[in-house]
Amino acid sequence: MNRKTFVILSIFLLAALTAGIFFLRENRPEPPIPATPAEKPVASVNGQVITVKTFQTKFTKFATRLHLPWKENTAAAKELKMSFLNKLIETELLLQEARMRNLTVTDDELNREINLLKEDYPKDTLDAALVQIGMKLDEWKSDRREKLLIDKVIEKEVDSVIHVSDDDVKAYYDSHKKDFKVPLMVKARQIVVATEAEAKSLRSRLLRGGNFAKIAEQFSLSPDAKQGGELGVFARGQMPEEFDKVVFRYRVGTISRVVHSPYGFHVFQVEDRIPPHTRSLKDATGEIRKNIFQSRQESFFHDWMDALKKGAKITIYPDNLQQGPQ
């Protein structure tokens, strides 16, 4: 059985399995008539109701977090709300699948995830960031737990059946060689100061044998001063034009003339020049394998989600979707 046939058969069997499972769920009694407009359903997923209040709360936080410029009761707003509701429905389906397969997220797993995410925030700023989008820490933790649970079910049902062979990688490389061409690149350091006189004085010290990295760390005003003025490796067009006009002209080890830019007065040192070349298959393999995997993952996930939706009992109440909780 070839790979394509296996994937198609897997999807078919999954669709049949989920259809049978959800057929049993359809016998659940309908939810009682809500007492208030906020409790009205915007959707029902296998008997699990998404209320107006739940939808509006999540949608408002979503719009606030992304700073979405939209107005209520417009065609764009209706389309955006329907798209967001579809995501909530998909999330509910995934959570139901995870629970059906007895998947769980332990407190240790959740704490590891939270500690990793906290590293992206300076000390004591996470709570402030959550306040800005109207979310409490416990709500955020609950969302993270749900995300980890969804990641587990996707890994089990999608990622585990995707395989990228060495032949796949080689075929991709051969058909995309132009994507692996690398232009001339340089590795450089800089010192940035406020006046031309200071820049010339520091340049003189460098020409007399001063250590560029140490002088940059001591005198440079640029954020990269802490790294000795390290700019890293870059090609033409990745830095301001004033930089390119200088650093791509000099040999390795050369101290540049003083260069004026909107940021101040610069002195550069070129540390390395990397000639134009094409990356080897060995060098590009990891990137290629990741690209192929992500492409197949997206395609297979869509097929799998379509199968889940077809096997589920989903009801949408569009009239309720456009009203706010009361």
Task: Describe this protein with a few key phrases.
Chitinase A, domain 3, 326 residues, three-stranded antiparallel sheet, 2 domains, 9 strands, Triger factor/SurA peptide-binding fold, four-stranded antiparallel sheet
Q: Helical segment tally? A: 12
Number of discrete domains: 2
CATH superfamily (homologous) name of the largest domain: Porin chaperone SurA, peptide-binding domain
Q: Which architecture of the largest domain per CATH? A: Orthogonal Bundle
* Distance between the first and last residues' Cα: 57 Å
Account of the protein in words:
The chain folds into 2 domains: 3-164 and 287-321, Porin chaperone SurA, peptide-binding domain (Triger factor/SurA peptide-binding fold); 184-275, Chitinase A, domain 3. It has 12 helices and 9 strands. The protein has helices at residues 3-25, 52-66, 75-100, 107-118, 126-132, 137-157, 166-175, 196-207, 212-219, 241-247, 281-311, 318-321; strands spanning 41-45, 48-51, 181-182, 185-193, 230-235, 259-261, 264-274, 277-278, 314-316. The strands form 3 sheets. Strands 5-4-7-6 form a 4-stranded antiparallel beta sheet. A 3-stranded antiparallel beta sheet has the order 2-1-9. Strands 3-8 form a two-stranded antiparallel ribbon. Helix 3 packs across helix 6, helix 4 packs across helix 6 and helix 7 crosses helix 11 (281-311). Mean pLDDT is 85; it is low at 1-29.
